[in-house]
Amino acid sequence: MRNIVKEIECKFSDHDDFFIEEELVDKTAIYLIGFNTLVDLSKSKLYVQQMAASSTSINALFINLSGQINVDSEQIIKAVIEGNLVIFSQDGEENAVVDPIAQNLRSSIAEPKNESPIYSSLDAFGEDINMNVGMIRKRLSTERLCHSSYQVGELEKRKLSVLYIKGRTPNSLIEKVNQQLKQIKSDIETIDDLNKQFGQRRLSPVSHLFATELPIQAIHSLKKNRIVIFLDNCPFALVFPHLLWDMLGSVNDRNFPFILSFLLRIFRVIGAVATLILPALYVALVSVNPEVFKTDLALFVAKSREGIPLSAFLETIAMVVLVDLILEAIVRLPKSVGPAITMVGGVILGQAMVEAKLVSNLLVIVITAVVIASSAVIGMQNSLYIRLLKYPILILASLFGILGVCMGLFFTVIYLASLTSNDIPYISFHIEEKGDTK
Amino acid sequence: MTNRIQIGIIFIIVNLSFGYLVYPNLVYGLVKIAHWEVVICQCFLQMILIWIYIRGLGYFQGNDVIDIYLKMGRWAAIIFLSPFVINLVTLVALNIRMHTEVIISIFLPRTPYWSIMILFFFISTYTAIKGIGTILRSSVFIFFIVIPLVVFSFFTSVVNFDLHNVTPSWYSPHKFLSNVKFYYLLGFSSFLFLGFFSFDKKITFRQLFVSCLGVALFFLSVVYIPLFIFGQETVVTLTTPFYEAMDSVDISWFSFNRQAIFFGISLVGLVILANAVMFWMIGRIMKKMFTFRTVKSSYWIIAFSVCAFILAIYVPNKYLIEKYFLWCTSAQAYFMIIIPFTIFIYGFLTKRGNLGYEK
Q: A39 phi and psi, to 5 degrees?
């Protein structure tokens, strides 16, 4: 009689947190099935009892409790894995999938961890995909906000949600993204796994997706004709396509008067350009083209390098790598140890290396400026790829001097200009094309 | 995707890259006084040709030059366009070589020229392979990096001006119009690439008018800045008058010793893009002309850039480069006249033919 119950019990024999509880309702037994790590059993029991008290029969109870009644065993297993409570009648003929009182496994809405916006609301996206979509819906109440959800992957079906505003986002773009997401065969574990689905950028440091933690930023992107993708258990809104402008302007800037936000953005442009060319310019001006300076300046530069055994390129690349190592180390370390590294790094870089005549004073200033400048751009991934792109320019500068610096800069510009995601160029500032409102 | 602002910008960039070095020499050789008449006449002639070209292209909506020649017949395309490709290859080779020489004299007097040429060829070819979209988009950014430097160099050179160097400024008998060398100048106004975009919308002459004016202004200043600084007698003896003019400027409050580095930097950006445009044209012509072999246009571009590189390396000295470059631009001038006119006439005829057929 209880074949199906036995079958499910057999299936979950390797799972110690699996439970089958017998419960008496109206003098007949029912069975509650689920994972006690996902379902709060005692509260759920109470909930079922209360519902039973107000229901006239088992059947009525099942209807009151759930929308999914009498499903087949495969769906039951899926429901149990997803953390639902399944109720069987005594004979095992009838069942119902119930949304239980779940164990609290999620953190609630918190402040952003990877971005620190000023003059802005401080809610950040969380782990739960429904909560994230809800946060967008709550802030953008229009019927034109569309939501299509997908379940992709091989081992586990991971939930994906795609949001866009009908009439704003180009229809061709929506269709293409739709197709690309449907074609996903492999597991999506990280953001980069998803990024790979949007086409050829295997070796590119620039992603197709811009990750943001802030609902305002996501909504702004939606309004600017873009698509926002949510991945289950990933506390970011992934904006597609990623544009160069994401690095330079955020919506929070516009809380200031126009002239101030313009100023902020100019500073970010300066930051990005300085990160790219400052170390290269140092190498070029010190070792290859010292003659372009006026005499007193050239002498000053030469004096600061007096007695330093390393070549300009070697000392610069050593310092740049060291600084990038420190930045990486600070991220990895627990918060209590982090300051120690900062202090030791500061002492070594700032004083010891200069006093030991290993690197010049000027270089320390240049490196400090670069670190500060690279942090001025918006988004950690943008800061990282800008930091990466400075290396080729540095190498070109050591070979060709100033010519190498500007060649490298032009090459970087051309490279960024060649990037497109679904035919939308990376360096376009906004997507003009609008979709139909139909 | 092709935006008219981007087309205007790339038009300016290509013209700028050609105009910097040899153009002033030709003008100085042509007349002794009133150089502006030459420049204005040349720009006027260029505008007329562009107008004819665009009218001609307007007869064939959505087609580029190659399509139109293919419509005339495969042989017509091969006869007209293969010399054009050869011309383009030599032009690229000599252009890069000539600019490399100048850049070496500005930045790196001890570096061998082939190493710098490899860099130029590599970046130009890469840009061309990435396609016209990349060229147009990057042109906007490079334009905004380069043009301030160009303008800055122009304005700083004012300190050395001597107004007496250019008087008298009016000279009425326009003898230069009958001089063949005047038509060499036409080779510097490269507008043929305009016909290689496949437009969704019709390009009109009005859209290009501002760019044409900008280019005319630029040509005027390129000719007149060395003239203001050195005077006609000195200028004819110089090999690269504009570079010498830039190098003569010295501003006391500025921390850089030589003004010429800004000129050099702007040259780099312009040369890369102008050559990328030419490589792209070559790739497009070859791909459309030889459809029986399905070779990707990027392979054509790489093959021809290797040819151009070998050609550029084998030119022995600076004197010969300039001589060949002049030949090349005169050949270019020939194409600039022949291609717009054939397209205009063919378009006109087919249109009339169509009308006759409809009746």
A: -110, 130
